[in-house]
Request: fold
Amino acid sequence: MISKNLKKTFYPPIVSVNEQILELKQKGFEIINMGQAVVNLNPPQNFIETLNKFYQDKRMHYYSPDIGYPFFRENLLHFLNKHFNSNIKNIDNLLITAGANQGVSTLLMTILEPEDEVIIPAPYYFNHIMAVDMLGAKNIIINTKIKNNFQLKLEDIEKYYSPKTKAIILVTPNNPTGLTYNKKETEKIIQFCEEKNILLIFDETYNLIFFNEKQSFIDKFKNNGNIAIVGSFSKSFAIAGWRIGYILLPDYLIKDYIKVQDTFIISPSSPAQLFLNEYLEKSEEYLININTVLKNRANLLYNNLNKKEQTIFPEGGCFLWYKLPNTNKTSAELAFSLLEKYKVAVIPGEVFGNSYKNYWRISFGSVDEDDIKLGAEIINNFFDLY
Ligand SMILES: Cc1ncc(COP(=O)(O)O)c(C=O)c1O
Reply:
């Protein structure tokens, strides 16, 4: 009954951890949940007021156009150009999605055929791997290393490139490392993709959460180029449940992408579009605050963990890619035992790639400061036993 391609892929790792957490909660345990990369801060204050204001407005309750309301896309394009120093002129290239995952998977469905290859650096974001698997295409995984700051080099790509390479997916700021891709090296990759006619997909879910310098490749987008960029409001506006994001697509992909988007979601959330349309221009202070809170949390977690000589402080996102002290156990075994015995949830490194059995991704987006300190203390004590 189940599709062969779907069987090739795995059960969503976050769902597995959340199921384990739920089971413990049902037994009455309290959990410090440093698992899922969610931001537990409040959405902007006037969210509900704005929704109330639009209650009588039919646009809030009906489908929007498949690719979002044109007035919102206009506003969003202006917002992106301002934030990322880009100069994209035509709103036709900017489409609204039901979040970054839907944007990436819809795009992959638009371009991939069975046997096509997609190059994905590891540690990777598992949903990309799952989407490629489900479509019967092939993930070509390139492991990046801590000694190179998890950077990807053009020469790595050249080694793995084949005439079947259809796309490359880069996540920046990266999930799970929290690091960004080096601009100079990535420029070379952009050039290579142009020469070889490969679609370079940037997943920039975290482009508005940064701890030093803002980083995005939106300024490299061209309406006739080989770059597609996916963004999201899930984390930066703490509205993951409203399912809203966007995708920048070159001209030649738009019509076919819309076929897939229409089939799966018809249109993205209308309330979220109306809210953001009112709010984007006034969001500066909110974004500064969310970045300050997350950076403080990142510092707190990093400073309170003892054994972290090989852990790199993140540049963005809401998690720390923690290099584990040496033990003879895998990160999944250790994470399982931490949760079962000490009720702290983290995500084991191997769900981001087989070579990362000595890492955990520890989220600081989903826990308040007291729990960060407590979680770090429990983790320290846990490793003292090894
Ligand atoms: C790299 C990356 N892409 C996409 C997503 C999903 O984002 P959205 O809620 O916008 O679908 C996440 C969420 O954790 C992510 O980390």
